[in-house]
Automatic annotation (TrEMBL):
Family under the similarity heading: Belongs to the archaeal Rpo11/eukaryotic RPB11/RPC19 RNA polymerase subunit family.
KW Nucleotidyltransferase (keyword) present: yes
Coiled coil stretches, renumbered: none
Compartment(s) where it occurs, according to its Swiss-Prot or TrEMBL record: Cytoplasm
Entry's EC annotation: 2.7.7.6
Reaction catalyzed: RNA(n) + a ribonucleoside 5'-triphosphate = RNA(n+1) + diphosphate
Protein name in the entry: DNA-directed RNA polymerase subunit Rpo11
Underlying gene: rpo11
Domain called DNA-directed RNA polymerase RBP11-like dimerisation: residue spans: 13-84
NCBIfam families membership: PRK01146.2-3 (NF002239)
Role, per record: DNA-dependent RNA polymerase (RNAP) catalyzes the transcription of DNA into RNA using the four ribonucleoside triphosphates as substrates.
Amino acid sequence: MKLKIIELEKNKVRLSLEGEGHTFMNTLTEEILADPEVDVAKYVIEYQFSDPELFVTLKAGSKKDPVAVIRDACVRISSRCDDLLGYLKN
């Protein structure tokens, strides 16, 4: 997956995720929103075959890096997938 950072500020980021669709983007957005310091997490797919853009903002006063918040959400998703695969092997 290729990422392109479109906009990056202290408490917000907007990036494009090449080749992803609604399935991953819905999962990622919900996982990002699980972080109590996140204010907004949403994505837009402008056209049917265009790459989605993810927009994340943190609450005022947050000390977290918005890119780190996205990375942490991806790690949690990956961990859950690994747990499921391990369970299915048994």
